[in-house]
Amino acid sequence: SQQGEEDPQALSIQEGENATMNCSYKTSINNLQWYRQNSGRGLVHLILIRSNEREKHSGRLRVTLDTSKKSSSLLITASRAADTASYFCGLRNKLIFGTGTLLAVQP
Amino acid sequence: DTGVSQDPRHKITKRGQNVTFRCDPISEHNRLYWYRQTLGQGPEFLTYFQNEAQLEKSRLLSDRFSAERPKGSFSTLEIQRTEQGDSAMYLCASSPDTVGDTQYFGPGTRLTVL
Known about the structure:
Largest sheet of chain A: 6 strands, mixed
Largest sheet of chain B: 7 strands, mixed
Number of helices of chain A: 0
Structural class of chain B: mainly beta
Oligomer: heterodimer
Order of helices and strands of chain B: EEEEEEEEEEE
Shape of chain A: globular
Order of helices and strands of chain A: EEEEEEEEEEE
Helix content of chain A: under 10%
Number of strands of chain A: 11
Shape of chain B: globular
Distance between the termini of chain B: 33 Å
Structural class of chain A: mainly beta
């Protein structure tokens, strides 16, 4: 499969806690992108990490990439109720997605 | 609003009818993508355009599906003889002319086939 697989499938945390979700893949990549999708809405781009990068930050988001293990992780620090959404990693130009991680942040 | 727009946002149709969706990308973006998303799944790639040229089509895009981007700006996705299995969210995205660039998604068109 060329798609990324997000793990866990669902994650429930309390507001203020950190949330970590992972993406594993099998193919070679030039970059990997993380997206967020609120229920019934389109996807919102969060961050892109290139294959020659190991870590990238954007606000409360931290993404790591380990090309030797073919995996990436997305860390959301100090989570808020508004972070409740599904999170997807996308691979390659056509953005092949997995089934996503459904994050629920309880106030 | 200079983001990607899609029309209509919702469409309910009866089985066997034809439907057409429209996507207006961000104006300076040359690449335009169509995806389909069913409940609980991630979006699945359908097809993409570089300007007016349709460069790739997924095997998911059966003969009943056709997409066009006649002037390299907006795009339409038509589904003929709709089936209940076509019920899904249809997402459009656009990106600049660089491979691997960020894709910007529209809000989607939710299709329900009765």
